[in-house]
Specification:
The chain is α/β, with parallel strands linked by helices and 703 residues long. The chain has 23 helices and 29 strands. It binds adenosine-5'-diphosphate (ADP) and magnesium ion.
Length: 703
């Protein structure tokens, strides 16, 4: 049903323009002109209470007067009368509204959008927008927008939150030679959002690759789920490097979580490729829309110039697809098509003597050889060769080798003749670029796609039966006391319920009690202030470690209380925690913030300067799977620390992966209650010896 509605909205067979105008320059005129000019084959019904004819079309006073069915209605009328016209559309059984009109949530009037959505739900309609340019589809000859033209035809479809950007990209597709089928402006997304659009484009026959320009969204989790299910490449360009959530963060994790990190994590989990800028977006979608994904890491580079070969080698490493030497049999064959001073390793340098024939032979052989998973062909324009003929030799070699599932990208560096050959190659379905690193980046994207899809196969594990009721009871107690933070002792109790090992801790309210507890715990002990008003205990002089006897316990008890009171005069002090002192190990941090768009997110990093100074941390949207937890351990820069440096034994990574999964269950289970969580530090021991959560912090959501 929803799919049908979106078909009506994005591929309408008939279309009404509410706010149609006879005045050139008005949007209500341009949309009709565009529909006609670009050859829209469906019915066009201009609606305007005053006019009788616009651009040769009969005008209706009201949408209710239109004789036939109307699939979609474009609205260009003032914001304040949209609701009443929407009801008329509902009565007419219109499927989709293309709401171009501005002046809604972008100027603080979310309430007006809510009203529209309620009407749309009541009548079973979908709304695209508001605050958009419209929607375009080459395969339907549909230009229901005020963008200048239909884009260069192709197989990429774009959904863009920015209308201005969509207009700019539209005409540039001809210059960039990247073909698009649909351009969908989704603006404020009061109803139809990225989740709907990737799902719909995912089954659209005329789309082989989806491009997204994203400013921000609220339905992060459903987007991840929807994108995971789409069986075609999605490339996202995320704009806005704001630090939302970081400003008022009470936890360490909160201050490190920014939009960039969280979106980056979400894309990874969704199996979505992230582009770094507009040029990168175009290069990637070009490759993804016309070449097959790359199924392995063996990339072979053919070249007639050493310099571009080295640039390609550097780019390959930068793009995560480093070159390996080709096996001996491959080298032997390739050596037949180069002079003595050439190189058959990788990159394969045929030297400046390479002509059409050598390009044909090496390309044909390399793409056909089982070792090769992908091929980059580089060419520098020389006086002895003709770029067009080289391009034709490459194309013929690929066609005649007739292998499926192996991508090829090309770079020609030269003048006008090379540029023409590039254009010709792209028209033949071979992504070609003016620089070697772009050809490498494009093929690396095809490899990134298969790797990403592989990595999202493993579902997140739950840590089994957990007494979440007991955890909720602890939270309820804090709320009853009007507290928004749990004490370390309470937080650790919750961690224990979820199977995370913590240092044994008891609460002493007097010196005598402290000594008794320390005796029972066994020396040395650690003593810490317990107060919901003191979140960072060390800052308040509230932590004493390595306490070796009863006399030192008494001293520490007094000092900690004095320090706490001078730090915050009216602090509510529960007492002093007496806890076992964990032996030395590698300190790491596990953390979580509840993001407004994505819900509970999870952070991992090494403790100390790694997190404080280098901010060397990585994020995921929870829950994380075992595979994702392993990825998190390996993708921080300090990863080798866990494998043991300078003769140290490797750390217990298995225990750490397990802890990340358990932590994940905790933050998801209690996601409705918890705003931020830190386990900082967690001390990790040698392989087989586990880990200990030494400090725990839980900050509750405002309710
Ligand atoms: P806070 O982060 O609130 O300042 P912590 O509980 O993290 O306080 O204590 C500060 C530091 O003291 C920790 O980073 C850790 O190095 C050390 N520490 C705290 N508790 C223990 C413990 N039980 N065993 C060993 N070291 C500890
Ligand atoms: Mg701490």
């Amino acid at each position: 049903m929803d799919h049908e509605l979106l078909n009506g909205l994005l591929r309408p067979k008939s279309i009404a323009i509410i706010g149609a105008s006879a005045k050139p320059g008005k949007i209500g005129y341009t949309v009709i002109d565009n529909l006609i000019k670009d050859g829209y084959p469906g019915k066009i019904y201009p609606i305007n209470p005053e006019a009788t004819e616009i651009l040769g079309l009969k005008v209706y006073k009201n949408i209710g007067d239109v004789p036939g069915d109307v699939d979609a209605a474009v609205m260009t009328i003032p914001a304040k009368i949209v609701a009443q016209e929407l009801i008329e559309c509902g009565k007419k059984k219109v499927k989709g509204i293309i709401l171009i009109t501005s002046g809604f949530s972008e100027v603080g009037r979310k309430d007006m959008e809510d009203e529209l959505v309620a009407i749309a739900r009541q009548y079973g309609m979908r709304i695209l927008g508001p605050n958009i340019v419209g929607t375009l589809s080459n395969s339907d000859k549909l230009n229901a927008s005020f963008a200048p033209c239909l884009p260069l035809p192709g197989k990429v479809s774009l959904a863009s939150q920015s209308g201005a950007l969509l207009i700019a990209l539209d005409a540039s597709t001809y210059v960039r030679r990247v073909g698009f089928d649909k351009l969908i402006s989704n603006g404020n997304m009061c109803d139809v959002n990225f989740t709907d659009l990737v799902t719909w484009l995912g089954v659209d026959d005329n789309t082989s690759c989806i491009a997204l320009y994203i400013e921000g969204f609220k339905d992060g989790r459903s987007f991840i789920e929807a994108a995971q299910k789409v069986e075609k490449p999605i490339v996202a360009l995320k704009a806005g490097v704001s630090s939302h959530g970081a400003a008022a963060a009470a936890s360490h994790t909160g201050s490190l979580a920014g939009a960039v990190k969280i979106y980056g994590a979400a894309f990874k989990q969704a199996g979505v490729i992230q582009a770094t800028d507009l040029d990168d977006l175009f290069d990637r979608v070009l490759a993804l829309s016309i070449q097959p994904p790359m199924q392995g890491d063996n990339l072979l580079v053919l070249t007639n110039g050493g310099g571009v070969g080295v640039l390609a080698t550097d780019a390959a490493e930068r793009c995560g697809l480093p070159l390996h030497f080709a096996p001996e049999d491959v080298q032997t064959e390739l050596r037949k098509h180069m002079p003595e001073f050439g190189s058959a390793k990788n990159p394969v340098d045929m030297t400046g003597m390479a002509g059409n024939e050598w390009y044909y032979e090496t390309t044909h052989f390399a793409i056909g050889h089982p070792w090769t998973h992908g091929l980059v062909v580089l060419y520098c324009e020389t006086a002895m060769t003709n770029p067009q003929q080289i391009a034709e030799a490459i194309k013929r070699a690929i066609d005649e080798a007739d292998v499926k599932g192996k991508p090829v990208t090309v770079s020609f560096v030269g003048g006008e003749r090379s540029d023409k050959a590039i254009q010709w190659l792209v028209e033949q379905g071979i992504p070609a670029f003016g620089a070697p690193d772009r050809a490498v980046n494009a093929i690396a994207t095809l490899r990134e796609y298969t790797r990403l899809r592989e990595s999202i196969k493993d579902p997140a594990v739950s840590c089994g039966d957990v007494d979440s009721a007991a955890a909720r009871k602890l939270i309820a107690k804090a709320r009853a006391e009007k507290r928004s933070t749990l004490t370390e002792i309470e937080a650790k109790q919750i961690f224990e319920l979820y199977g995370l090992p913590t240092t044994k801790t008891s609460l002493a309210t007097s010196e005598d009690e402290a000594v008794k507890m320390a005796d029972a715990t066994g020396y040395p002990v650690v003593m810490k202030i317990v107060s919901p008003d003191i979140i960072h205990k060390s800052d308040a002089g509230g932590v004493k470690v390595s306490i070796k006897d009863a006399a030192a316990v008494r001293d520490a008890f007094k000092t900690i209380l004095t320090n706490a009171k001078s730090y915050k005069v009216d602090a509510d002090i529960h007492g002093v925690a007496i806890q076992e002192m964990a032996p030395w190990g590698t300190e790491v941090i596990l953390g979580s913030v509840n993001d407004p768009g994505f819900g509970p997110t999870q952070m991992f990093g090494l403790g100390g300067i790694f997190v404080e100074v280098l901010k060397d941390v990585t994020f995921r949207v929870a829950p994380v799977s075992r595979t994702m937890a392993e990825q998190m351990l390996s993708e921080i820069r300090g990863a080798p620390m866990l494998d043991g440096v300078r003769g140290e034994a490797p750390r217990d990574k298995a225990a750490l992966v397990d802890a990340l999964c358990k932590f994940s269950s905790l933050i998801v289970d209690l996601g409705d209650e918890i705003a931020e969580t830190d386990a900082n530090p967690v001390i990790v021991y040698e392989k087989g010896k586990g880990l200990k959560v030494v400090d725990a912090r839980i900050i509750l959501k405002n309710k």
